[in-house]
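User: I'm curious whether this sequence folds into something compact or stays loose and floppy. Could you predict its structure so I can see for myself?
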Amino acid sequence: MMMLIDSESGCGMYFFLVRIELMKFVLSIMVFVFALNDGRAGERESDKQKKISPEVVSIDQLDWLTGDWEGPIGGGVLEESWLPPKADTVAAVVRLTKDGVTEFVELIKIEKIGKTLELRLNLFDAFLKPMAEKPQVFKLSEISEKSVTFLGASEGSHRKLSYERVSKDQFAIRIITNDGEKIAIDLKRP
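Assistant: Here's the prediction. I'll summarize afterward.
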């Protein structure tokens, strides 16, 4: 550091420059500490998400999905048939008909992988041609005694997909599409 001495105060300028250097040093330490804490806060948030993420003991936790459901949607009728849990999976066939024509067929597979669930679905047109190159993939977000929620994990998948057994004879599907549109589908026993 260059020493400048003020002729009237002796070394006033020297102390002024030392104070500036000291303030720079303290500021650098503060920036470092804040950056370090911010990074740790991000880790803590990540840890919170890991703790919130539900653990699945058995695929049998989804046995409430089993059965046939149907209901109106967009001027047509949506039908879902869910098979009982077996071999760490639950599967469903879905059909949308409108004006006497099958609009699409959908296959759904929910699989227990480790301590969580993954949902895969694929839509097919009336001629069973896949409507997308790859299936939509969803990861488990929440699970309770009679409901399950998944978040979209693959390109092009819906943001959110949830199923709930509202009562013995009522079944609700809630979707938030990739574009943010909210869709509510209420089904009942046929």
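Summary: The beta strands are 67-73, 76-82, 89-98, 101-113, 116-124, 136-143, 147-152, 160-167, 170-176, 182-188. The helical segments are 12-52.
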